Amino acid sequence: MGRLYTSNINIGYGDHVIVKNLSVEIPDKKITTIIGSNGCGKSTLLKAITRIISHQSGSVVLDGKDILKENTKNLAKKMAILPQSPESANGLTVGELVSYGRFPYQKGFGRLTKKDIEVIDWALEVTGTIEYKFRSVDALSGGQRQRVWIAMALAQETDIIFLDEPTTYLDMAHQLEVLELLQKLNKEQERTIIMVLHELNQAARFADHLIAMKDGEVVKAGNCEEVINRHVLQKVFNIDAEIGRDPRTNKPMCITYNLVKGENKHEENRIPDHFALSANY
């Protein structure tokens, strides 16, 4: 097995099981993207792997140890997570927010050391946000704020970074900016990136490894060729997709799609004949 994997984990709230008997392996030093429809368990899986929530049974193993038995600060030195909706940073400057990433390394009264300041400035430089260091986080655009949150994750100096829908609420240009930054971190610094994405073509373009989920289970895990195809997408999203090639990356991409409907599915919602007839006039 690899460095990070789950073994037969079940995750739920009370009696409601969301993720069922799931075993996945996260490739080291690669970009892994989890896809699936709303409510399929993508974010729940991310939270369980990072110990934000507990799993009911099974195990999550990192470097040969069950994460439930790992010291909190030691775990925070190995993995960082950027949640879907980061907590408000009202009143904080960019530098102050990024400094929170140094928490696992602080002792005593938590004063920043020279090393801490060097790492914070490095994280700001890498994410292209050093010029905002003394500005209020509230004054930044959505794309700028997202890069600052990523800088905070980088300041943790972890090999593994989890991101839950990092492009949510961003326009197309800022989405691309964030994803290219993550790709750069992976290629140049060999960071292992695990993220949840909704947009299929972004997932295909930037991921080395894809995990497609439905109803708390893995439908297919593998490279883009294995996952972005008509058969898998029909199972996961109930769509009939036309798959082509991205002319810039040569990776598979979804060109268009229709909903798959059963023979008598939604019969009760069929347009009455007299309305269909009147539409012809």
UniProtKB/TrEMBL annotation:
GO terms for molecular function: ATP binding. It is a peripheral membrane protein. Gene3D superfamilies: P-loop containing nucleotide triphosphate hydrolases. CDD domains: ABC_Iron-Siderophores_B12_Hemin. Keywords: ATP-binding, Cell membrane, Ion transport, Iron, Iron transport, Membrane, Nucleotide-binding, Transport. It is found in: Cell membrane. This is ABC transporter ATP-binding protein. The lineage of its organism: Bacteria, Bacillati, Bacillota, Bacilli, Bacillales.
